[in-house]
């Protein structure tokens, strides 16, 4: 039964409690098992029966000593080097002693320090990935897919290895722009969940030992202390100069520090790789409105938060809002930022005689559409602040307090399909229609994940969920198609396990687009009914794309200005039979076993939907744009 203990613990409880006679209790438990899991087949039922019988047969009393005999102390809740707030408040709550804290211990304005998950060493993994430096091709796939940001890589001068621990690994780097450097791939042992996704995506095979790759799972306890020391040393190595990287490449992106790390999401989570990617690309200037759901729980589940900051002290500003108003909440951030930017530019113009016309014009007219442009604007803001120092002007003092707003900010509304397709759809639609520069990231698990797996409008036809016990009778809402109709919003549908490059490009294009953008990200989930670790979830992502269920696409209205079709379909024509995708997940196969005729009808209708959707997207993407010829072909279409 792996880590599923409910059945065995329940059997043990009734066996020793005498609440009801033991035999009667066991019989009742087995009836309950048959009722709960009968639809999943006899094999599952028998596994649970066996767990009950073995639990009772192996039940024995553990004698509790009358005095302490341990020769070791319980480890501190957080490391000794943790900040004061973490020591005095966070650690107490982690230890279950939060009720003992006085009200005065908490922040008066409701804000909490960021980056505190790194002090919460959970040690939940029995196995962790171990790097084989000789086999590694430095592709970055493992770093990119890691749901908890526990695998990191750096390129640095070999001189910095002088004080490295004896077990610390490195190898010659393969980046042309970083000559005479070495490369290290390092894992945070006490933060890893042992999901194994990194091993699954590794393309490098050990030529000496069959079955091994450049990263392989190994028991964690024997190597924990050594890897702890290696991790601490790794963190002290300098971060790679971002200006020398092409962040649209997975190989280069692995060297960018994530500002979302060590979350409490499920092992192998399908959502967090996208959130981590957002933090790498835009995190040092991002403002995030997070709808209630899984992403708000693992994103801000006090006492710790995974959102953190870089070496310059910059990181995302994050806040949780409600299901029904999160899109509007994020747009409120956008409106406030736009007004502050307008005010700051007005103050800059007023102070032109003090600042110099050249700096004023550069600040006001800065092109911040690229990484280089943003970096140059930050440098100008530093010069601006220095010029404002000591000024007695009221305008100068006000400008100094808001000068950082002159650097482009990236606003994101973040949440799941329950928010985006259902309860918060009205607000999401309002933002798309507003024309405002708000980015929307929908982590689509096709079900209300956080509240127990209820059906949403994103749930596909035939899938079992709460409120759809016999399979959802209607098809999945096409949110992307609905958003494209506005012709003024950037829209993308991505699946990182199917195409990491397409996913990264979509994020970059969405953020660069000066208007509303919507990214819908396929996210495998434990509510789909199968073990998502070990690569299973990643394979299902690929199968969803290959079957045509999930069409990868990007719709960029800016392309029409160049006379190009705004729609690009990144998927290939469906090549996998739909049943080869859906029936690997219990949410579909339950219906196939219990009501085969109903399942057959669902499959037929779903296949029809896929065929029609594919033709619609293909026809749209193949239309010619520009000139009289465009109009004629458009009419023919």
Explain briefly what this protein structure is.
With 637 residues, this protein is α/β, with parallel strands linked by helices. The protein is 41% helix and 10% strand. Among the domains are: 6-57, no CATH class; 84-113, Pyruvate-ferredoxin Oxidoreductase, domain 4; 127-262, Alpha-Beta Plaits, CATH 3.30.70.20; 410-636, Rossmann fold, CATH 3.40.50.970.
Describe the structure in your own words.
This protein is of the alpha/beta class and 637 residues long. Among the domains are: 6-57, no CATH class; 84-113, Pyruvate-ferredoxin Oxidoreductase, domain 4, CATH 4.10.780; 127-262, Alpha-Beta Plaits, CATH 3.30.70.20; 410-636, Thiamin diphosphate (ThDP)-binding fold, Pyr/PP domains (Rossmann fold, 3-Layer(aba) Sandwich). Helices cover 41% and strands 10% of the residues. The chain is built from 24 helices and 13 strands. It has helices at 6-17, 22-37, 42-57, 84-94, 141-145, 197-201, 224-236, 250-253, 272-282, 294-300, 326-350, 352-355, 357-364, 371-388, 394-402, 417-423, 425-434, 479-484, 500-512, 536-546, 578-582, 586-594, 596-622, 627-636, and strands at residues 127-131, 151-156, 171-172, 182-187, 215-219, 286-291, 317-321, 410-416, 439-444, 490-494, 517-522, 553-555, 567-569. The strands form 3 sheets. Strands 7-6-8-9-11-10-12-13 form an 8-stranded mixed β-sheet, with helices on both faces. Strands 2-4-3 form a 3-stranded antiparallel β-sheet, covered by helices on one side. β6 (286-291), α10 and β7 (317-321) form a beta-alpha-beta unit. The protein is globular. The N and C termini lie far apart (56 Å). The model is unreliable at 628-637 (pLDDT under 50).
